[in-house]
């Protein structure tokens, strides 16, 4: 008889396979007794990520499979590691008590934790939002929505590709939901820099999305949120709500509103600018970011809000000035400043604590933290309400005292309530009479055991008697072997150890039943009372969230005040003009990184649309050109965030867009050359400039040959000068030929970063002075970098020869000629047949499909063509 080819599957594995089939793309943590187990491929991944032992289940049998597990009480240790590795984790629990069934225990997934949907403190960062995003593509526009389930913040927006790209960069979601049919389009537009999850196409339907949202908020329509016109954004928001239900997150009363991100209200910065200015993320390993320097917030809520303010600088002058006024009040009100600073330190993350209450994942200790935090807000509220400043007074009035809630928690829970409700001793005395009586019984039972021990010690004469408890046979008496001949006959032996014997007695069993019965009832009662308390707290979600937002604002303003006082920042004047005037401006990050005793060299920058629209900055590498560009952008940015700025004084005409093209940020890993990336970013700037734009261009054209680079840089500067918007521009370059532009273009002015020349070296003075620069000092910089002397001497010799053969004047004359004739520059004459052949060879080469080896071979081939000549 032929053997069956099918593997024999145990009932447990059959159950596992049926649950795993429902969550094929998630790691399934399968609860078996006191362990969470993983099987097969999941086990191999878990073992690698968690560093746990990989074993086998059913070793040697037909049903052998890889196995890795960890104790269930270690879930909070291991789960964050899996989620941070980008995995979706399905937690499968036992849905019934194994003692109450003779069949296999019912199991089911109780929660699906993903990078974007987590309430676990170990996964979340205190001062950073953990956003889940959803993107919906329409023909012309894209809708986007962001939700932080840990805080209840729910945002929606829509716009073109650049706008959505900017929002994704700024909000930095941990996970993005995308319609399956748009997978390729998403990667083409936004690359693969996010954890993505693809949902079925039907989820992204207008009617389904709106109905889902209306049902969640329990409203007739969405007009009250002011988002009804954002059709595509609402489709994305509906997909998020669908995803939450699919991941078993159904308790969502803390998600109380839906807010639109108003595109026109904030300064536009594309993702290149956010990256180039290093606002949040460093571009090199040990670099310090702007947020590292300016974040003086104390509370987690303040830290998160400050990042939002940095991502979305204001354009409304009145709103900016309101923040400035409040910062001024904080600086000048010493008592208020100290009260707020002290009280903020006593406040926990109430925004996330109230979310845990709403989702039913809060512990007794966290509820006590919530109560103490609400108490700590009261002195801030009182101090603000006493203030003569109208805005501060209003801030105080917007904070809720929550006295009723504070009183309820105080009366219900012990101050030192444990982390887990099943640990006991959470519910205070006097809350429930039955609970108090049971505690007396349980405690007196333990006292009785002590008296029983004393009695039996005296009766038997065994001085080392011990009463203990274990899960196998309950309470027992332990007798060391030296005394076992004194054991009374009525004691029943239960266990023999190396040095002792364990016994039980009838009297012990009776008391055990009473005590364990009481402890079990105590646990049930404590859990019931705690659940009722949670239900009571849920009605306070809104006032607690409002308090969290109010405290976050106060914290950010206090942070601004602290920053200004510690670093000598000044209040900038913000007006409707299109001018920028910065007197002795400093780079907020670099000035904090200087060696002790060294002062930052401050610089003036004046830009306007009438006399000085474009500043052409020349000077050697390492002289500080890039620092001046960046500091100008950062000063404008800080000013429009409502902060004080690092300068002697500053006047900023409101800027609506900041563009930067700084440094050669290579994207070769994506198959693009440095020069291609540079041109893409520059094209994006030229296509989006406006009257109030600030444009910062650093070393444009550096990625190609000198003549190509000069001609591209010249054409770009000319375009910006002649454009009807007249965008304010700082243009750093090492092409000194561009200094000639000032003779033809009236609003282009030359400046250089000065250096002091000694006999055979240079000193960087880092001071911006009027006029162009004639040298590049590249060889001096190479010398400073420690280049071998032989190379330095050889370079100097070659430079002299080049300067003799190809004077700068030739290039300048060519540029002038082009300018006068208004014709395109052409440095190469292709009447030579060989050059024509090489040109044809290059043009017919498909660079996109060329491997590095093929590129070298092609280059070698062209070289051979030239040497044959």
The level 1 CATH classification of the largest domain is: Alpha Beta
Runs in which pLDDT lies below 50 for 5 or more consecutive residues are: 1-5, 665-671, 822-830
Number of strands: 27
Q: Averaging pLDDT over every residue, what do you get?
A: 85
What is the CATH topology descriptor of the largest domain?
A: Rossmann fold
Main β sheet profile? 7 strands, mixed
**How many independent structural domains?**
6
User: Architecture of the largest domain in CATH?
Assistant: 3-Layer(aba) Sandwich
Number of helices: 28
Strand order of the largest sheet: 13-23-24-25-21-26-27
Alpha carbon gap, first and last residue: 83 Å
Structural write-up:
This protein is α/β, with parallel strands linked by helices and 869 residues long. It folds into six domains: 11-113, MutS, DNA mismatch repair protein, domain I (3-Layer(aba) Sandwich); 132-265, MutS, connector domain (Nucleotidyltransferase, domain 5), CATH 3.30.420; 296-402 and 540-567, MutS, DNA mismatch repair protein, Chain A, domain 3; 433-534, MutS, DNA mismatch repair protein, Chain A, domain 3, CATH 1.10.1420; 573-775, P-loop containing nucleotide triphosphate hydrolases (Rossmann fold, 3-Layer(aba) Sandwich); 833-868. It is 44% helix and 17% strand. It is built from 28 helices and 27 strands. Helix 6 crosses helix 7, helix 14 packs antiparallel against helix 15 (390-398) and helix 17 runs antiparallel to helix 18 (506-538). The chain starts with 10 loop residues before the first helix and ends with a helix. Mean pLDDT is 85; it is low at 1-5, 665-671 and 822-830.
């Amino acid at each position: 008889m032929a053997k069956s080819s099918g593997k024999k599957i145990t009932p447990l594995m059959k159950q596992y396979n049926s649950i795993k089939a429902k969550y094929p793309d998630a790691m399934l943590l399968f609860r078996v007794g006191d362990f969470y187990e993983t099987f097969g491929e999941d086990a191999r991944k878990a073992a690698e990520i968690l560093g746990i032992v990989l074993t086998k289940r059913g070793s040697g049998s037909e049903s052998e499979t890889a196995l890795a597990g960890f104790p269930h009480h270690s879930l909070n240790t291991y789960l964050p590691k899996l989620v941070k590795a980008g995995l979706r984790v399905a937690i499968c629990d036992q849905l019934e008590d194994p003692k109450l069934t003779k069949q296999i225990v019912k199991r089911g997934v109780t929660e699906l934790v993903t990078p974007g949907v987590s309430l676990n403190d170990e996964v979340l960062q205190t001062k950073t939002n953990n956003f889940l995003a959803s993107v919906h593509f329409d023909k012309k526009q894209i809708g986007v929505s962001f939700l932080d389930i840990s805080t209840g913040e729910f945002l929606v927006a829509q716009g073109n590709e650049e706008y959505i790209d900017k929002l994704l960069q700024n909000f930095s979601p941990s996970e993005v939901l995308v319609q399956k049919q748009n997978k390729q389009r998403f990667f083409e537009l936004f690359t693969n820099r996010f954890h993505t999850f693809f949902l079925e196409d039907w989820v992204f339907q207008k009617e389904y999305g709106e109905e889902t949202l209306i049902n969640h908020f329990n409203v007739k329509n969405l007009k009250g949120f002011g988002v009804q016109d954002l059709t595509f954004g609402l489709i994305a928001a509906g997909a998020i709500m669908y995803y939450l239900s699919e991941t078993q997150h159904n308790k969502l009363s803390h998600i109380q509103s839906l807010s639109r991100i108003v595109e026109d209200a904030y300064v536009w910065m594309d993702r290149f600018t956010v990256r180039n200015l290093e606002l949040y993320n460093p571009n090199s390993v040990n670099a310090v970011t702007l947020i590292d320097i300016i974040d003086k917030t104390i509370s987690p809520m303040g830290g998160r809000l400050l990042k939002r303010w940095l991502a979305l600088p204001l354009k409304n002058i009145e709103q900016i000035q309101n923040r400035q006024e409040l910062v001024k009040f904080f600086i000048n009100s010493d008592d208020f400043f100290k009260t707020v600073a002290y009280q903020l330190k006593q406040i926990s993350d109430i925004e996330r604590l109230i979310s845990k209450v709403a989702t039913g994942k809060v512990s007794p200790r966290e509820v006590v933290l919530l109560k103490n935090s609400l108490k700590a807000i009261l002195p801030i509220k009182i101090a603000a309400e006493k203030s003569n400043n109208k805005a501060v007074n209003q801030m105080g009035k917007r904070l809720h005292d929550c006295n009723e809630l504070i009183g309820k928690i105080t009366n219900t829970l012990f101050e030192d309530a444990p982390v887990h409700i099943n640990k006991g001793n959470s519910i205070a005395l006097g809350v429930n009479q039955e609970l108090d009586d049971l505690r007396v019984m349980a405690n007196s039972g333990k006292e009785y055991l002590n008296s029983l021990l004393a009695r039996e010690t005296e009766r038997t004469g065994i001085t080392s008697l011990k009463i203990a408890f274990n899960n196998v046979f309950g309470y027992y008496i332990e007798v060391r072997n030296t005394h076992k001949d004194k054991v009374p006959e009525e004691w029943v032996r239960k266990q023999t150890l190396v040095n002792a014997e364990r016994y039980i007695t009838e009297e012990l069993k009776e008391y055990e039943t009473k005590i364990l019965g009481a402890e079990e009832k105590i646990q049930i009662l404590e859990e019931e009372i705690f659940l009722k308390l949670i239900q009571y707290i849920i009605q306070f979600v809104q006032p607690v969230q409002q308090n969290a937002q109010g405290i976050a604002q106060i914290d950010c303003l206090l942070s601004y005040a602290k920053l200004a006082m510690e670093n000598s920042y000044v209040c900038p004047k913000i007006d409707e003009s299109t001018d920028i005037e910065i007197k002795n401006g400093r780079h907020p990050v670099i000035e904090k990184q200087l060696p002790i005793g060294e002062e930052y060299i401050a610089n003036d920058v004046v830009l306007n649309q009438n006399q000085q629209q474009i500043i052409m900055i020349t000077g050697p590498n390492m002289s500080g050109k890039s620092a001046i560009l960046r500091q100008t952008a950062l000063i404008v940015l800080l000013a429009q965030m409502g902060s004080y700025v690092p300068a002697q004084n500053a006047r900023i005409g409101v800027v609506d867009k900041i563009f930067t093209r700084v440094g050669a940020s290579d994207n070769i890993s994506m198959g693009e050359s440095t020069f291609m990336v540079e041109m893409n970013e520059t094209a994006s700037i030229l296509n989006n400039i406006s009257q109030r734009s600030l444009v910062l261009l650093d070393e444009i054209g550096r990625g190609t040959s000198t003549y190509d680079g000069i001609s591209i840089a010249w054409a770009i500067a000319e375009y910006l000068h002649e454009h009807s918007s007249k965008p304010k521009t700082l243009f750093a370059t090492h092409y000194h030929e561009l200094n000639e532009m000032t003779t033809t273009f009236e609003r282009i002015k030359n400046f250089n970063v000065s250096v002091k020349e000694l006999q055979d070296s240079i000193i960087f003075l880092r001071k911006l002075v009027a006029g162009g620069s004639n040298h590049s000092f590249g060889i001096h910089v190479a010398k400073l970098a420690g280049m071998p002397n032989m190379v330095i001497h050889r370079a100097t010799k070659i430079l002299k020869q080049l300067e003799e053969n190809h004077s700068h004047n030739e290039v300048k004359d060519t540029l002038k000629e082009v300018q006068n004739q208004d014709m395109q520059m052409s440095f190469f004459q292709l009447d030579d047949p060989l050059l024509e052949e090489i040109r044809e060879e290059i043009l017919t080469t498909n660079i996109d499909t060329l491997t590095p080896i093929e590129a070298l071979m092609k280059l070698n081939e062209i070289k051979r063509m030239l040497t044959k000549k």
